[in-house]
């Protein structure tokens, strides 16, 4: 049963076309109306919060171009999540079937120009980007990997970006967007939650088995990281990052200093 009837005025663009059937952006001659706005509008007017939907259903309702394959659809959904839509897949909600998604929360009404613009203009200035990365020591605050590292799961080079801490909808003014405290350094994988879509990256029982090797102190530290969703760099990590950037002779001097300090001789 549809969540709202299709003759609800709000479900139609100024020319009377349903938003999700629109091909040209209103007010333009030939600018293509985006796939994310169409997908968002269809979900908004045809699904209740809590309902599930499948790729097959989207293709039937919106045409095959909206979800050519799972990868294509995942990209669309990722963009919606950035606009505050809550759309878990099986990776984050084990009660869903592999081809099933749940509409957990309706986000921004991005088929409307004004709403879409709020999210579009959201990219931070180059100055902010640089300051945030400097402040975080050019490391992802979520996984702790740095610009020179590679991902342990596949050896790919880490790419850093910055992400917002406060949900985007609450950051409407330019001033709020430029507030350093609203941003943190994230690697592209943590930022896009692509990890969610890598098939079977980890199994619960194996992760739990690995925990047995941790000391009580380490377990406490891990508990804090996971609760916070962030991996802070310890003082030792930070000192290592800085020492690594010294010249070789200076690094040797640091080694001598530390060796003395821990009581190594000669
Ligand atoms: Zn990361």
If you had to describe this structure to a student in words, what would you say it looks like?
The chain has 266 residues and is mainly alpha-helical. It has three domains: 9-118, no CATH class; 122-197, no CATH class; 212-261, no CATH class. The chain contains eleven helices and four strands; from the N terminus they run αβααβααβαβααααα. It has helices at 35-46, 55-62, 70-82, 113-120, 126-135, 174-177, 188-192, 204-211, 216-228, 235-244, 248-261, and strands spanning 52-54, 100-102, 160-164, 183-187. The strands form two sheets. It has a two-stranded antiparallel sheet. Helix 1 (35-46) packs across helix 3. The radius of gyration is 24 Å and the shape is elongated. The N and C termini lie far apart (80 Å). The chain binds zinc ion (ZN). Residues 140, 142-143, 145, 186-187, 189-190 line the site of zinc ion. Zinc ion (ZN) binds next to strand 4 and helix 7.
What is this entry, summarized?
It contains 11 helices and 4 strands, in the order H-E-H-H-E-H-H-E-H-E-H-H-H-H-H. The chain is mainly alpha-helical and 266 residues long.
List the helices and strands and how they pair.
Layout: H1 35-46, E1 52-54, H2 55-62, H3 70-82, E2 100-102, H4 113-120, H5 126-135, E3 160-164, H6 174-177, E4 183-187, H7 188-192, H8 204-211, H9 216-228, H10 235-244, H11 248-261
Helix pairs in contact: 1-3
Keywords:
about 270 residues, two-stranded antiparallel sheet, disordered N terminus, about 40% helix, mainly alpha, binds zinc ion
- Fraction of residues in β-strands: 5-15%
Query: What's the end-to-end separation, in Å?
Result: 80 Å
Number of continuous helical runs: 11
**Spans of 5+ residues with little confidence (pLDDT < 50)?**
1-6, 194-198
Order of helices and strands: HEHHEHHEHEHHHHH
Described by strand count, sense and barrel closure, the largest sheet is: 2 strands, antiparallel
Helix content bin: 25-40%
Structural Rg: 24 Å
Number of E strands = 4
Number of domains: 3
Shape: elongated
User: Largest beta sheet: what is the strand line-up?
Assistant: 1-2
Mean pLDDT: 83
Structural class, from helix and strand content? mainly alpha
Bound molecules: zinc ion
């Amino acid at each position: 049963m549809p969540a709202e009837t299709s003759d609800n005025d709000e479900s139609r663009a100024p020319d009377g076309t349903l938003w999700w059937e629109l091909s040209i952006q209103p007010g333009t001659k030939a600018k293509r109306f985006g796939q994310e706005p169409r997908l968002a509008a269809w979900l908004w007017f045809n699904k209740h919060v809590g309902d599930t939907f499948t790729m097959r259903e989207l293709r039937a309702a919106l045409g095959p171009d909206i979800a050519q394959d799972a990868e294509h659809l995942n990209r669309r959904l990722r963009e919606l999540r950035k606009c505050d839509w809550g759309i878990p897949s099986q990776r984050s909600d084990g009660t869903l079937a592999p081809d099933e998604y749940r509409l957990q929360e309706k986000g921004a009404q991005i088929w409307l120009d004004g709403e879409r613009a709020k999210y579009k203009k959201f990219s931070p200035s180059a100055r902010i980007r640089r300051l945030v990365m400097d402040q975080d020591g050019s490391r992802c605050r979520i996984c702790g990997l740095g610009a020179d590292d590679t991902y342990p799961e596949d050896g790919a080079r880490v790419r850093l970006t910055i992400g917002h801490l406060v949900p985007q909808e609450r950051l409407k003014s330019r001033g709020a967007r430029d507030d350093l405290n609203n941003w943190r350094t994230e690697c592209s994988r943590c930022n896009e939650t692509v990890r969610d879509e890598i098939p079977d990256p980890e199994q619960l029982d194996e992760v739990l088995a690995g925990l047995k090797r941790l000391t009580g102190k380490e377990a406490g530290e891990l508990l804090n990281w996971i609760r916070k969703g962030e991996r802070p760099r310890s003082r030792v990590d930070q000192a290592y990052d800085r020492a690594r950037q010294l010249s070789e002779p200076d690094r040797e001097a640091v080694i001598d200093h530390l060796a003395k300090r821990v009581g190594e001789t000669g």
